[in-house]
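Support case: user asked for a sample of complex input and structure output to validate their parser. Sending the pair below.
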Amino acid sequence: MLSFENDYSEGAHPAILRRLAETNMEQLPGYGTDRYCADATEKIRRATGCPDADVWFLVGGTQTNQTVIDSITPQYAGVVAAQSGHVNVHEAGAIEFTGHKVLTLPAHDGRIDANELADYCEGFFADANHDHMVFPGSVYISFPTEFGTVYTLAQLEAIGEVCRQYGIPLFVDGARLGYGLTAPGTDVSLQDIARITDVFSIGGTKVGALFGEAVVFPRSHSPRHFLTLIKQHGALLAKGWLLGLQFDTLFTDDLYGTIAAHANDAAETIRTALRDKGYSLTFDSPTNQIFVTLDQQTISRLSSHVRIGFMQKADEYHSVMRICTSWATTPEHVAELISLL
Amino acid sequence: MLSFENDYSEGAHPAILRRLAETNMEQLPGYGTDRYCADATEKIRRATGCPDADVWFLVGGTQTNQTVIDSITPQYAGVVAAQSGHVNVHEAGAIEFTGHKVLTLPAHDGRIDANELADYCEGFFADANHDHMVFPGSVYISFPTEFGTVYTLAQLEAIGEVCRQYGIPLFVDGARLGYGLTAPGTDVSLQDIARITDVFSIGGTKVGALFGEAVVFPRSHSPRHFLTLIKQHGALLAKGWLLGLQFDTLFTDDLYGTIAAHANDAAETIRTALRDKGYSLTFDSPTNQIFVTLDQQTISRLSSHVRIGFMQKADEYHSVMRICTSWATTPEHVAELISLL
Amino acid sequence: MLSFENDYSEGAHPAILRRLAETNMEQLPGYGTDRYCADATEKIRRATGCPDADVWFLVGGTQTNQTVIDSITPQYAGVVAAQSGHVNVHEAGAIEFTGHKVLTLPAHDGRIDANELADYCEGFFADANHDHMVFPGSVYISFPTEFGTVYTLAQLEAIGEVCRQYGIPLFVDGARLGYGLTAPGTDVSLQDIARITDVFSIGGTKVGALFGEAVVFPRSHSPRHFLTLIKQHGALLAKGWLLGLQFDTLFTDDLYGTIAAHANDAAETIRTALRDKGYSLTFDSPTNQIFVTLDQQTISRLSSHVRIGFMQKADEYHSVMRICTSWATTPEHVAELISLL
Amino acid sequence: MLSFENDYSEGAHPAILRRLAETNMEQLPGYGTDRYCADATEKIRRATGCPDADVWFLVGGTQTNQTVIDSITPQYAGVVAAQSGHVNVHEAGAIEFTGHKVLTLPAHDGRIDANELADYCEGFFADANHDHMVFPGSVYISFPTEFGTVYTLAQLEAIGEVCRQYGIPLFVDGARLGYGLTAPGTDVSLQDIARITDVFSIGGTKVGALFGEAVVFPRSHSPRHFLTLIKQHGALLAKGWLLGLQFDTLFTDDLYGTIAAHANDAAETIRTALRDKGYSLTFDSPTNQIFVTLDQQTISRLSSHVRIGFMQKADEYHSVMRICTSWATTPEHVAELISLL
C-alpha cells in the first residue's frame, strides 16, 4: 500500500547506502574519532560558514534534544518552548527526566513569538518572588515547526535578540531542518541559523539518512566534556563513523538540500491539488508536511489505498491528518495520491 | 510594623513551644521512632477515622510534595495539577528535578474541574500515539487552593471518582488544610479527605507549628520503603520527635481546628470590612487568605503601616495583594488593619 | 594498518548489509512496530525457548544498561555489580544519572561470586540501620565479562538462586553474549540464560551488526509501559525496523552463533601462539578478547604494524593490552599478527 | 534509661530554646531573609575570618550534603569520598539520586589520604579512555570523620593542594565540626577550614541545636542562584529565622566551641576509664564519639542500663559499639556509665 505517513518510512537515500557498502570492511576507530566524522564536520563547518563550529553526531531526535537541553540549561532552570513543541508533547517526558521543566509559551501555528518571549522573561525577572520559580534557562524552537511552518528571518532574529538580551542560549531543533531551509519563500539560510543560534541540530533521520542528528555549536561553545555527557545520556554510538559517513554524504554536493527540495516540491504539488479540490488545509505549511482536516468518510475511503498520519480529532466528524513527503516520494506516488483525493 | 504578609511570620503556637521546652531534656531515639511520633500518629488516625493509616512526618511543604509525588507517580508518568498549583509555579522545579513532568489543567480560582480531568484522561488514552507522551500518573490538588478557595465535597468526590476510574492516585496538598476544613460553609471534613484521597498532607508550618507536614496514607498504602525514600530525598529529620511533638499537640483537643478557625474568623472580619469599604476581592476565598486588587496609591499608603503580600500585577495601575491571618492574629491587629483600609 | 583493537571496527556482516539494501525502499511503520521486528522477536523466542518472551530492540550498550537497570531497579535501591563491571567503570555514570547507585562486589577475573553476593545481601538486611542505606535492587553481571571470562552454569545458577531468594531481579549484560555462548568449554546455553535471568540483552553491535541490542524479558515481565520508558531515556529508534532486520538476520540459521564461533576460533589460534611464544596472558579468557601483559618495547614494536587496545598500566614497564577478534577477522589477519608477535 | 546513643538525643541547648521563646511572637520575613540569619552570617564570617563568605542555612545533614554536592559537582562528574564516607554509606543514595556517582578512595580510620587522592586523579587523567568514565568533580571529606577521627592541618593542606592542582572543589562535611575543632591535640582551626576548602558545613543538629546546618562558601563563590537550588532540592525552610536564631546563639560567645569542648571532655573521661578497664578502642578518636569493640555478654549486660549505638559486627562474638557524648551529657551520666562498664 502507498504510504505518505511520514518522512522516515524508508531506509536511506541510495547514495548513503552505497557508501555504507563501500566502506563496510574498513577498520575504523569508534565513538566519532574516525575520518568520516572529521570530513562531515569540515563540510558542515563550510556549509554553516562557521570554521570553528563544534559538530557532534547523535542517533535520534529525542536523544539529541534531551542531551543538548540538559547540557546547556542551568541546573536551576528550565527550557522555554512552544506549547506544541516536540519536547513538550511527544518525547515521553525525556526533558523532565533530566530534571528540567519545560516552560511553555503559546504556539502560533507551531511558532513562539519573540514579543511573548520578551514579555515572559521580563515578567519573570520582575516578579519579586522569582527565586522560588523555574528560571528560563534556554529557549527551544523547531525549524520547521511540528506543523511544518517556518519562521521568517526577522522572526528568528527577534527571538535571538531576546535570548541574547537575557543571556539565554537559543537551541533550534532541526530534525527537519532541510525542509525549512529549502521551503518556497523562506528567507532563512543555514548560515542564518548558525549565526543566530547558540546550538542547533541538523536532522538526518527524516531527511534521507538511516538515522543520525548532527549537533552544531557554531561558535565552538560546546558544554565542557560534551562527549562524556553524550555517553552519560546513553547517546554515544560505538560505530560513530556510520553517522559521519551519512552526514559526509548528505553534505557532499548539497545532497541534503536536494533531498529536502525534492520532498518540498512533491508536497507543493499535493498541496495545490488539495486546494484545487477544495480541501481545507489546517496549517499554512510550505514544507514537506501537509496538514489537512478531513471528514471521517474521506479518511475511511483513503485508508484502504494509502496510509497517511492521524494527528488529532478536529471535531466529532473531522480529524487533522498529515501527508508527508520525502526523498523517496516519486512522481508516480504523487499522481496516485492526487487521483485518490 | 504590623504584618499580614503570611501565616508563617511568627514562631509557633505557645502550646507547642511549651511542650518543646518541657520535653527538651528527654532522651529520644531519632528519625521518627520516638513515642511522640507514635502518639501523633494515633491521634491523626483517630481524627481521620482511619485506624490503619500510615503517617509520616516531614519538615516542609515543597519537600513533602516532592517526596510524595516522586514516590507515588510511576516512572513513565507525570502529575496532573492546576496551572496555578504550587508544584507547578512556586517550587523551583522540585517536581521536575525528580524526573516527573507537571501536566497542567486550567485553574478555576485555583481548582481543577473533574470533567476537565476526565476529558484529559479520556483524550490521552484515546490518542493512538500516547506511548510517546507523558502518562497522567497522579493527580495533585491543594485544599484549600493557592487562592484560598476550597472544593465542595461533591467536587472532591467527582475528582476522586475520575482518579479511581483511571487507577491514578489522588494527592491532596494540605499545607493549609485546617483553614479549608474550618472554612465557613465548607462541607468537607478530614474524614472525607481521608476517604477520597490516596495520600494527603496536613500542614503544620502554616497552621501554628514551627515547621512540619504530616503525610497520611489513609489505607496504609505507603510506597515501599518510604522511610528510605524520605531519606533519599533529603527530607528525614534527625530529631524526628520535634515533628511528632508538634502534631501531637496540634491534634490534642483539636488545637489544629481551633487555630484554623481563629484565623478564618479574623479573615472574615477583614473581608467584611473590605467589602463594606468597596474594595474589590480578587477571589472568593472563605479561608485565611484574602486576595484583594488594590491601586498603587492604596498600596503605597498601606505599605508604611502594614506589610501585606504582593502577588502579581493586575494591570498598569493595580496589583493583586494578599492579606493573611494566622493563630497569632489578634483582634487588635484586625482592628488596626481595618482602620488603615 | 592491521587492527585487532576491538570487535566493532568494521561495519556489519555482509548478510546484514545485503538485507538493508534489499529492503531499503520498503515503506515500514516506525518505532519497532514493523514486520521485521516481529520476525526477529519470534526467532529470539524460539532460540531462547521462551514462547512468551518480551523482546525490545535498542541501539547501544550503555543505553540498554541504563534503560533496563533504571526500569527494573526500585526507586529506593541500587544495582549490584562487579567492581570491574561496565556499568561501574565505563559508562560515564549513566546509571547514577538515572538516580541509582552501583553497589560493588569484588571482581574475580570480572565475575562476581554467588557466596559474596549472598553475604552482601544477608549483611545488608541484618544491619539494623539499613533503612538509611541503598538497598540492593537488582543484580548486573556481564556474560562474558569485561575481561572475556565466562561464568559456568553452576555459577550462574548459584547467582540466580541468591537473587530469587532475596526477590532481586538478575540482569545479564550480553553485549558480547554470542562469544560467551560459543566459547570452547562453556556449559551455558542461551536457554540457560533465559531460564536463570529476569532480563538479558543480546548484543548486536559487537557481534556483526551495524548496531543494536535486543533486550529479552524471558517470562514477559517487562516493566509497565516499557516503550515509553525507552522513549523517555532517549533510546527509541525511529526506523526501528533497522534493528529488527539485523536481529532477524542474526537469528536466521544461527548466523549469530556462527559469527561468534568464528571470532572465538581466531582468538584461540592467537592465544595458542601467544602461549607458545611465552607471552603472559593476563586473564584466562576463552572468548574473542585476549588480554596480554606486554612490555613497552614490544608494544612500541607492534604499534607500527597493528592496532591493539591499551587497557591499563600493569607496572612501570608493562601494560595490559587487548587483542580482539570479530566476524571480520580473516585467517590472513591472524597469520600476520602471529608473525608480528 | 541512660543513653549515650548519639549526640542528637535531646532537644536543644537551653540558650537556644530560650531565644526561640523570646522571639516567638516577632513577625519575621521567611526563607532566610530575616535579621537573625543576617546576624548569624556576620558572626560566622567573623569566626571564619572570611568577611565575604556566603552563608546559607539548611535543616539537615543529608540534605546539606545532597544540595551542596549536586550544586558544586559538574554534570559529567562525581564526588570523591572515603569508602566509609557518610555520603557513600548512610544517605540512602541521596547523592546518586541527584545524578552523581560517589567515587571512593580507601578510608584510613575514616580519612582519605592526599597521596591516594593525587594518584587517583593522576591515574584518571592519564587514562586514555577517561571520556567514558566519571570525572572526579568534587572532593568530600568529613571533619571529624564518621569514626570520630580528625585530620591534621598538614593532611588537610595536602588534600587542599591536590584539589587546587586539579581544579576540583573541596567540601568539608562539618556535621560535627565543633568536636573536631576542639579535639585535644588538633591543630586545625575554623579559619584553617575556611582557608583550605571551597565550601564546608557547620553542623548544628549534632552540636546543640534543634536542627540546622550552616553552609559556608568562604570566598563567596556560591553556585549561581543557590537559593533556588536549595528550594529545588526541597531544602528551604519557610521560617528560616529558626536557623538564623540558632546559629546566632551558637556563635555568640563561642557557645558552639563550649558545647563541643564539653562533650569532648566527657568523652575523654570515658575513654580513659575504658582504657583503664582494659577495653579495646576500635578507633583512636579524640572527639565525642567513642568506638569500642565489645563482646556480646558485655553488650547484653550494658543494654539493660544504658543505650549505646550498635555500629557493626566485628566477628561472631564481638560488635563495634559507639558511645556518644553531647552538650547534654552531665558528670553524673558519665560517672554512672563508668561504673557500669
